[in-house]
Specification:
Elements lengths: L3 E6 L2 E6 L10 H16 L5 E6 L10 H5 L24 E3 L2
Parallel strand pairs: 2-3, 3-4
Antiparallel strand pairs: 1-2
C-alpha cells in the first residue's frame, strides 16, 4: 500500500502523505518513504522546491501512536528521524502546505 504520493510539476515536487483515515499519521513505512523521497528530491538537479502536504483535509497528526505503542519505530537517537524534514538536510526549500 502506497502511503506517499509523489508528483512533479516542472521544478516543483509535491509529496502528499496519503493516510487520511489516520489523519496522515506517520507509521514506519511512511517514514521510510518520506526519507527516500527527501533524499531523491535533494539529489534531483531539476527539482527546486518541495511541497509537503496531506490527503483528506488533514496535514499530519504526527507519529502514528499505534506504531509507537508497539515499538515499531525502534530507537535511533542519532538517526535521521521518522517524521519529516526536520532532520533531513537539504540545500533546497521545503514547504509544508498545511
Amino acid at each position: 500500500m502506497t502511503t506517499l504520493i509523489e508528483e512533479r510539476d516542472g521544478p516543483v515536487r509535491v509529496l502528499t502523505i496519503d493516510r487520511p483515515k489516520s489523519r496522515n499519521a506517520i507509521d514506519p513505512p511512511t517514514a521510510v518513504a518520506l526519507r527516500r523521497a527527501f533524499a531523491a528530491f535533494e539529489a534531483d538537479a531539476e527539482a527546486r522546491v518541495l511541497v509537503l502536504t496531506g490527503a483528506g483535509g488533514h496535514f499530519c497528526a504526527g507519529a502514528d501512536l499505534n506504531a509507537v505503542a508497539t515499538g515499531a519505530f525502534g530507537h535511533d537517537p542519532l538517526g535521521d528521524g521518522p517524521l519529516g524534514p526536520t532532520r533531513a538536510p537539504s540545500t533546497k526549500p521545503m514547504i509544508a502546505a498545511v
